């Protein structure tokens, strides 16, 4: 598990490989599942504005549901999601002549008819972001309909976070993504046994406790999810904590990733 600002990122995002194979899955992620795609509140208005542009691309059943309940509803887990047809298709799906399911909103965007691309949760898939009171959890969601994408990703050696660079930047910003890239590079060094560079240090639990005793406030991954204030105070950079999710004792890599904004 990786902490960057107020996000916790699963190591699967760095280690698993993925490359969407639309010709194999035919866009099944827009069809399968128990509910629609998660939405941010501001995205509801964007989808409603898109309706006049994409209306003719939607199925008659989708049009009927939108007229009845709107573009979104609250699912059983209390999340706001896109409305769906017959418990399956997102109402915004449309189909090519070969049966491939696509997003009518994205289609209109690519044709220059809309400025809104599509909901960020769709753009981010197979990453799912879950919001908590003090942090956001960023996880790789495995699904059997995406097996072909996993195989293709391994063939091309493309990690999930690289495949999803554009939507991750859209959701969290360029600075956040740059930090993720640096952490990923350091993680690879650690796995290969080459150790860290001048700007990183591998810390085992005993080291962390020792640092706490010396007034160096490295927070446990289960306590506050905060960056290291000592690092920030002394260097002007933000500390990032990495914890091995498989180790109950916690294995930390403390990194100084963001550039000092001071000049000179």
What does it look like?
- Helix 9 packs across helix 10 (174-192).
- This protein is of the alpha+beta class.
- The chain has a seven-stranded mixed sheet. A two-stranded antiparallel ribbon has the order 3-4. A two-stranded antiparallel ribbon has the order 5-6.
- The chain is built from twelve helices and 13 strands.
Question: What is the gist of this entry?
Answer:
With 264 residues, the chain is α+β, with helices and mostly antiparallel strands. The protein has helices at residues 12-15, 22-25, 41-54, 60-69, 104-110, 120-124, 147-156, 160-163, 165-172, 174-192, 205-213, 229-235, and strands spanning 2-4, 7-9, 72-74, 80-82, 84-85, 89-90, 93-95, 101-103, 127-131, 136-140, 200-203, 239-243, 252-256.
H/I helix tally? 12
Secondary-structure element order, N to C: EEHHHHEEEEEEHHEEHHHHEHHEE
What's the Cα radius of gyration?
A: 21 Å
Number of strands: 13
What is the structural class?
A: alpha+beta
Largest sheet: 7 strands, mixed
Overall morphology: globular
List low-confidence stretches: 195-264
User: Strands of the biggest beta sheet: in what spatial order?
Assistant: 9-10-2-1-12-13-11
Report, as a whole number of angstroms, the end-to-end distance: 35 Å
How would you state the average pLDDT, rounded?
76
Strand content: 15-25%
Helix content: 25-40%
């Amino acid at each position: 598990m990786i902490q960057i600002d107020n996000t916790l990122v699963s190591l699967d995002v760095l280690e698993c490989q993925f490359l969407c194979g639309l010709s194999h899955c035919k866009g099944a992620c827009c069809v399968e599942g128990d509910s629609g795609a998660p939405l941010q509140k501001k995205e509801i208005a964007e989808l409603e504005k898109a309706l006049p542009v994409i209306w003719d691309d939607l199925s008659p059943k989708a049009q009927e549901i939108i007229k009845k309940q709107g573009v979104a509803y609250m699912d059983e887990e209390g999340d706001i999601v896109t409305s769906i047809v017959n418990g399956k298709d997102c109402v915004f799906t449309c189909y090519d002549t070969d049966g491939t399911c696509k997003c009518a909103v994205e289609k209109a965007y690519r044709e220059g008819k809309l400025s809104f691309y599509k909901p960020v949760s769709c753009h981010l898939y197979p990453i799912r972001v879950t919001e908590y009171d003090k942090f956001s959890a960023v996880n790789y969601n495995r699904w059997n309909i995406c097996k072909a994408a996993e195989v293709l990703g391994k063939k091309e050696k493309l990690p999930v976070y690289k495949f999803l660079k554009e939507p991750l930047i859209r959701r969290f910003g360029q600075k956040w993504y740059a930090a993720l890239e640096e952490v990923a590079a350091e993680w690879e060094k650690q796995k290969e046994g080459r150790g860290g560079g001048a700007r990183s240090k591998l810390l085992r639990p005993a080291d962390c406790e020792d640092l706490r005793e010396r007034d160096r406030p490295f927070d446990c991954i289960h306590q506050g999810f905060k960056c290291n204030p000592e690092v920030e105070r002394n260097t002007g950079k933000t500390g990032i904590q990495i914890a091995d999710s498989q180790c109950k004792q916690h294995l930390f890599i403390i990194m100084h990733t963001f550039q000092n904004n001071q000049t000179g």
